[in-house]
C-alpha cells in the first residue's frame, strides 16, 4: 500500500513519479533490446537507456510541489527527445516507440486538461512521422502512423474529459457531505437549545396548573412561542437551502408596495425599525420572498448592529434599491468576502446556522436582482436591488390601506 500511495494519486508529485516509472520502463527495454539488436545499432540503445534512467531519477526525486502543478510537463521535452532519437535510430520500430507515445498522451490526459493532451499531438507527430518518411515507407504506412498518433492524442483527450467529470462528481459528493455534516451539526446544536426551552416552558405550565400567576403564565407561554418561532426559522432556512440546491425555488411575482411591506415587517420585529420609503414605490416580486429578504436583513442588523435600524428605498432607473442599515460596528474586513456564502462565519447568532444572508442572496438572484454589503460609517448597509414596477394604482393602494 505505501508503494501505491507513492505513485497513484493526483498532483505534480504523483504525475512526475508516474512519468518516472515510464522512463524507467523505457530504460529497461532499451538495455534488453540492445542484446538482440544488430551490431550497427547497439550503440544507440545503451545511450537511450542511460538518458531514460537519468530522467527517471530526476522525475522521482525532484521537489515538484514547489514548482507548481504543471511543472512535470517540462519532462515531456527530454522524453520526447529520447523517443525521437530512438525512432530515428530504428525507423520508428525500436524499443516500442509507438506504445510510449500513447502512454505519454494518456499520462497527459490523466493529470492535465484536454487542451494539454490535444496540444501534445503535433509533437507526437514530429517524433513519429519524420523517421518513417526518411526511410521511404509507403503512403499507406505513413497514413497509418499519422492515424495512430491522432488516436493517441484522442485517447489523451478522452481520458482528460473523463477524469474531469469524475473530479466534478467527487467535488459534488464532498460538497454534499459538508452540507450533510453541517445539517447534522445544526440539528444537534441549534435545534436542541430551543427544544429544551420549549420543554421547560411546557413542564412549568403543566406542573404549575392554577398556582401560576397570569403574568407568569403569559411570560412562559411567550418564551415557548419565541422558541417555536426560532425552530420554524431554522427549518425554513434549511428547506429554502434545499430548494435552491434542487432548483425548485418558485416565485409568484406581482406588484408589491415596498413601503406597506416594510411597515408591516417593522411592526412585528422585536426591535424598533424606522421606515423611510417614499409612497407609491413598487417592485415586481414575490411578496412572501421579498418579506423573507427584508426580515433576514433586518434581523441580521438587529443581532449584530446597533440602533437605529432603518429600512429605506429609492428608485434607480428601472430598478429599485432597498437598503437596511444599522449603526453598529460593521462587518470585519476578514469576514466580508465570505459574508454571503453558505454557513458564513459572519453570522454567529445563536438562532442562526449561517444561511440567512446566503438565502437572501439566492432569493434576490431568483428575482433577477442582487444583494450587496457596504460599510455605512458607522454601521452596515445591505442593499437589495430588484426590478422596479409602475406606480401602484389608486384603487389598489386603497385596498392595501384597508387591509
Automatic annotation (TrEMBL):
Q: Which InterPro entries match?
A: HATPase_C_sf, HATPase_dom, His_kinase_dom, HisK_dim/P_dom, HisK_dim/P_sf, Sig_transdc_His_kin-like_C
EC assignment: the record states 2.7.13.3
- In Swiss-Prot or TrEMBL terms, this protein is called histidine kinase
Question: Signal sequence: where?
Answer: none
- PANTHER family attached to this UniProt entry: HYBRID SIGNAL TRANSDUCTION HISTIDINE KINASE C (PTHR43547:SF2), TWO-COMPONENT HISTIDINE KINASE (PTHR43547)
A Pfam family for this UniProt protein? HATPase_c
Reaction catalyzed: ATP + protein L-histidine = ADP + protein N-phospho-L-histidine
Task: Please give the organism.
Answer: Planomonospora corallina
Amino acid at each position: 500500500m505505501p508503494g501505491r500511495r507513492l505513485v497513484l494519486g493526483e498532483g505534480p508529485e504523483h504525475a512526475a513519479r508516474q512519468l518516472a516509472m515510464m522512463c524507467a520502463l523505457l530504460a529497461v527495454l532499451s538495455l534488453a533490446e540492445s542484446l538482440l539488436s544488430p551490431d550497427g545499432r547497439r550503440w544507440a540503445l545503451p545511450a537511450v537507456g542511460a538518458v531514460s534512467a537519468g530522467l527517471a531519477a530526476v522525475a522521482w526525486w525532484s521537489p515538484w510541489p514547489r514548482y507548481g502543478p504543471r511543472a512535470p510537463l517540462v519532462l515531456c521535452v527530454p522524453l520526447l527527445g529520447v523517443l525521437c532519437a530512438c525512432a530515428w535510430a530504428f525507423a520508428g520500430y525500436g524499443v516500442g516507440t509507438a506504445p510510449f507515445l500513447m502512454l505519454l498522451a494518456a499520462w497527459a490526459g490523466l493529470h492535465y486538461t484536454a487542451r494539454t493532451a490535444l496540444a501534445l499531438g503535433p509533437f507526437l507527430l514530429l517524433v513519429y512521422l519524420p523517421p518513417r518518411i526518411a526511410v521511404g515507407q509507403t503512403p499507406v504506412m505513413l497514413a497509418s502512423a499519422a492515424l495512430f498518433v491522432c488516436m493517441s492524442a484522442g485517447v489523451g483527450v478522452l481520458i482528460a474529459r473523463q477524469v474531469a467529470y469524475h473530479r466534478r462528481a467527487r467535488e459534488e459528493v464532498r460538497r454534499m457531505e459538508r452540507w450533510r455534516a453541517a445539517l447534522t451539526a445544526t440539528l444537534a446544536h441549534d435545534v436542541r437549545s430551543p427544544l429544551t426551552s420549549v420543554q421547560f416552558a411546557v413542564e412549568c405550565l403543566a406542573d404549575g396548573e392554577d398556582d401560576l400567576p397570569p403574568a407568569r403564565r403569559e411570560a412562559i407561554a411567550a418564551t415557548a412561542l419565541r422558541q417555536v418561532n426560532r425552530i420554524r426559522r431554522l427549518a425554513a432556512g434549511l428547506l429554502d437551502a434545499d430548494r435552491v440546491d434542487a432548483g425548485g425555488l418558485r416565485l409568484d411575482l406581482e406588484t408589491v408596495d415596498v413601503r406597506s411591506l416594510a411597515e408591516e415587517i417593522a411592526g412585528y420585529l422585536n426591535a424598533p425599525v424606522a421606515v423611510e420609503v417614499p409612497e407609491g414605490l413598487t417592485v415586481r416580486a414575490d411578496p412572501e420572498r421579498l418579506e423573507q429578504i427584508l426580515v433576514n436583513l433586518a434581523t441580521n442588523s438587529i443581532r449584530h448592529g446597533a440602533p437605529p435600524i432603518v429600512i429605506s428605498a429609492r428608485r434607480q432607473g428601472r430598478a429599485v434599491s432597498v437598503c437596511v442599515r444599522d449603526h453598529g460596528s460593521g462587518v470585519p474586513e476578514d469576514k466580508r468576502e465570505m459574508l454571503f456564502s453558505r454557513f458564513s462565519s459572519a453570522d454567529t447568532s445563536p438562532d442562526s446556522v449561517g444561511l440567512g444572508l446566503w438565502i437572501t442572496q439566492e432569493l434576490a438572484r431568483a428575482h433577477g436582482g442582487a444583494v450587496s454589503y457596504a460599510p455605512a460609517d458607522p454601521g452596515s448597509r445591505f442593499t437589495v436591488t430588484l426590478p422596479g414596477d409602475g406606480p401602484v394604482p389608486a384603487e389598489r393602494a386603497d385596498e392595501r390601506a384597508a387591509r
